[in-house]
## 1
Amino acid sequence: MHISEFQNLMREIYFHRDSKRGVKGTYDWLVDEVRELGEALKGDNRENLEEEFADVIAWVASLGNVVGVDLEKAALKKYDYKCPRCGQTPCKCTVYAFMSIRRSCPMPVSCQPYGFPPSRLTIFSSSQSRK
Ligand SMILES: [Zn+2]
């Protein structure tokens, strides 16, 4: 299934609700789902993790439908089989080129597997406590 097919599926199933809810309401749902994905990443429930990924994708598709953005077109326009910054596959950007993006990364997991220095990867500030 292509991204556009999934987005169309979400349109068929939910557009009547999504369009009434509007941009702000749909965006708020997406944010909640991303938060739930973050919680799932802290646990070890694989099924729950997969469900949360599915919810995030579904809400991104719904939001795209509400604002009229074709996700597949947009994704391939920016990520056209290569890194949009360095133009390479795999990406050859330096760690510090990434840090500017990753600094505000909401993921509740360390980016250490990607080789970033842990001291620069404090994802949550002390005011955003981790469970
Ligand atoms: Zn790159």
## 2
Amino acid sequence: MLKFPAPFPNAIFVCTHKRPDGHPKPCCADRGGRQLREELREMVKEKGLEGQIRVFTSGCLGGCEKGVMAVKYPDGELMMSVGKEDLQQILDDATGD
Ligand code: FES
């Protein structure tokens, strides 16, 4: 195994997990997880934050009833019921603004 420092200090994982239609348990894909991930990526790009924040796709984070779920590292903050209105705050928290 090789180890080296990540070239970005903050990583945000957004759940985009999709369950089959009709599944009794909700999923973040059906609550807009994929769109939120893309919007967050666009905002990072537009604001020139690529060197500070990387946005990743996550599988199920285990809080499906409270989705869309996301988690931010290095602080390990778990976020639930994330909506479009929260994205700017998520970026501000990650950059310390
Ligand atoms: S499907 Fe997103 S947390 Fe479970």
## 3
Amino acid sequence: MIDGFYAVDYQVHSYCSHDGRASIAEQCARAVAIGLEEIGFSEHKDFDPSDPVVNHFDYEAYMQEIEKARREWGDRLKIRAGVEIDYQIWFEDQIGTYLDAHPFDFVIGSVHYVGGTMLMTPEYNRARTAEAAYRDYFKAVRDSVASGLFDILGHLEYANRRGVSAWGPYQTVRYRDALEDLLALVIAQGTVLEINTAGLHQNIGMTYPHADTVALYASMGGTRISIGSDAHHPDQLAHAYAQAVSIVRASGLSHICTFEHRQLLPVPLLPVTAFTAGPEES
Ligand SMILES: [Zn+2]
């Protein structure tokens, strides 16, 4: 429990990701120490052959480490084996084939590149206005959701990581039409919307997506939220979890989503007193 709530982190990396800075065992030890009930590893899996780290992720080695961690920590911690796929439209077939052959507990689809260029870098921004920089990003995210390949939409509005320094403060209201169109599709597809707290430790001062966007999603009828810290190091695990929980609750939502074998398992977000008095405990 963290602040009395069932505590889950569903965006966690280890050395199985090219940029991870801890072992799976180290992340699990930290998870138990800070009171997480459940940890969802979301290792990077990329498909772009021009990316030097494209072959870093090793599915068999990953699953072996997960099994080992479950033997050691499984009585105190639910350990889920997920993946964060870097989505680019031209790899859709490859991603689908890969996911058919490699079972995971959950699959996050994330957009880091648009048109082959990393978001909001000078190279990306050169040919665009601020408006186009964001709208092209939202279009790519829309494509990722429309593909139907993913359980969770990863870090929506991640464009702000570099976008805010490049283009100034982000204004949800400016892109409201694009967001409404995207979120309507997210809801129709049943895709889970991730609240990623990395923006709070990257000094962007907002989660991905912004709390206003979560509220917009809920006002449109969306109910499926997951929470992740994007921890690449144990110090970042469950970062600002209580803040993410308050965003969920402020939007009038009462559950967060977890997964096993890609089956969605909603967990009530209730204060511990109500949670222990719930029907499952009686
Ligand atoms: Zn990511």
